[in-house]
Amino acid sequence: MSMLDISAAAHVPTAPSGLSLPAPETLQQLGQRFTWGVATAAFQIEGANQTDGRGESIWDRFCATPGKVRNGDDGSQACDHYRRWPQDVALMRQLGIDAYRFSIAWPRVQALGHGAWNDKGIAFYDRLIDALLDAGIQPHATLYHWDLPQALQDEGGWLSRVTVQRFAEYAERMGRLFGDRMHSLATHNEPWCTAVLGHETGQFAPGWRDQVAAVQVSHNLLLSHGLALQALRAAGVKCPLGIVLNQSSRSAAKPKDQPAADLAYAKFVRRFMDPLLLGRYPQLDGFVQPTALEGDMALIRQPLDFLGINYYTRLWVSQDGLPPPAELGRTDMGWEIYPDGLRELLVGLQREYPLPPIYIMENGMANADQVVDGQVQDLERVDYLRRHLQALAEAKAEGVDIRGYFAWSLMDNFEWDSGYAKRFGLVHVDYATQQRTPKASFDWYRRTAQATRQGAANA
Ligand code: IFM
């Protein structure tokens, strides 16, 4: 691992509240043009799930199914962002970020996933994008962050090639409407979650438990990505186009665990990377091949203008059931904190693939945050972000073309099957009152981005 010149800023910043924070670090290797952002997703923040003609999504249906989501929580109100978005854009401006990554809710802009477009839903994103641009914040949108129109699920969902076709039509329409104002458009967020958690383990919507279906869904998601990119380019959309994958480095507890670790990595990372960048699926024992029709692999392997990577923890494999050392502890999700995995992952990918520019589109931690005297001292999150940014700077110093980093998340939100029990935000949300309280990490992130820009400019 390379040693980096990460110099601490001259002073220890103090949050407006008087709370002492670790000094922001000037991660100068990230450079002056590095994009600092935050991310969210539609279903997790918008609420208003029956407002202005929005159609039902598979997550509405899943939440309404007893026993699927902790405490029976749902997305009907969430952070009420559909109504409070001006306040949230103001918060982002206060945070001083360059960019905001959000997702478009397909059932909000096209209730049934085919047929009529919903002008009111489209107007919502239209206003949001314009307000971001007015605030000097680059909009980056994801077209699919898990909220499939239920009507398409009723016709087979992602197991059906009809959905693949519908997705490309939806993507093209969004590209024509918003593409000239976007700084990037991603087709999917974390297709592994849709395929495996949605169709193999049943933990996520639509809640299937069918391993064979999950393999095919995974393939269809990739197909829909390829078809969408073709359609967007044919429509003349010029903003950078890509996809966002959740990825991890792999660690074998003992040498004998290495083959199992390699298989786990193939199922998690190579499952998407190989088709997208090499035009084939991994060939190794235990890796189940989907049914691919003639032309599928070429369709999937469209040129990528960027690759989004979401990193939270590493894959740890022990056939003896040994737990990872977790020397830096675990997050409130129970995920091991392992920042060096980010560097290791990126440097490994650089070796294995012809990579396009990389954006870290999500990274962050769930923490059991409390508001005490109007403040949230989430110093654990500050430490998590600091260590991961440092790992990112190291990867960049080792030659990986990393263009930006988006903290997950702007604010606490609906954490899928965990409901509102897990808090990932830089801003605390009191769901009863919808009060937003910037946490200590908010202040630290703002100062770190600022110090880095200045440090790089002076270097
Ligand atoms: O909240 C999710 C997000 O929707 C996708 N990536 C992981 C986050 C934390 O679990």
Brief characterization of the structure:
This protein is α/β, with parallel strands linked by helices.
Summary keywords:
459 residues; alpha/beta; TIM Barrel; eight-stranded parallel beta barrel; two-stranded antiparallel ribbon; 14 helices; disordered N terminus; binds 5-hydroxymethyl-3,4-dihydroxypiperidine
Describe this structure in words.
With 459 residues, the chain is an alpha/beta fold. It has a single domain (6-458), classed as Glycosidases (TIM Barrel, Alpha-Beta Barrel), CATH 3.20.20.80. It is built from 14 helices and 14 strands. It has helices spanning 42-45, 58-63, 81-95, 106-109, 119-134, 150-153, 161-178, 191-199, 211-234, 258-278, 296-300, 340-352, 379-397, 440-458, and strands at residues 7-8, 25-26, 35-39, 99-103, 138-144, 184-189, 241-246, 250-252, 306-310, 315-317, 358-362, 402-408, 427-430, 435-438. An 8-stranded parallel barrel has the order 3-4-5-6-7-9-11-12, surrounded by 6 helices. A two-stranded antiparallel sheet has the order 1-2. A hairpin with a 4-residue loop joins β13 and β14 (435-438). α8 (191-199) packs antiparallel against α9. The longest helix is centred in the middle third of the chain and has 24 residues, at 211-234. Residues 1-18 have low confidence and may be disordered.
CATH topology, which one? Answer: TIM Barrel
Topology as a string of helices (H) and strands (E): EEEHHHEHHEHHEHHEEHHEEHEHEEEH
Strand content: 5-15%
Number of strands: 14
Number of domains: 1
Gross CATH architecture: Alpha-Beta Barrel
Low-confidence stretches: 1-18
Radius of gyration: 21 Å
Q: How do the strands line up in the largest sheet?
A: 3-4-5-6-7-9-11-12
Counted by DSSP, the helix tally is: 14
Shape: globular
Main beta sheet, described? 8 strands, parallel, barrel
End-to-end C-alpha gap: 23 Å
Secondary structure: helix percent: 25-40%
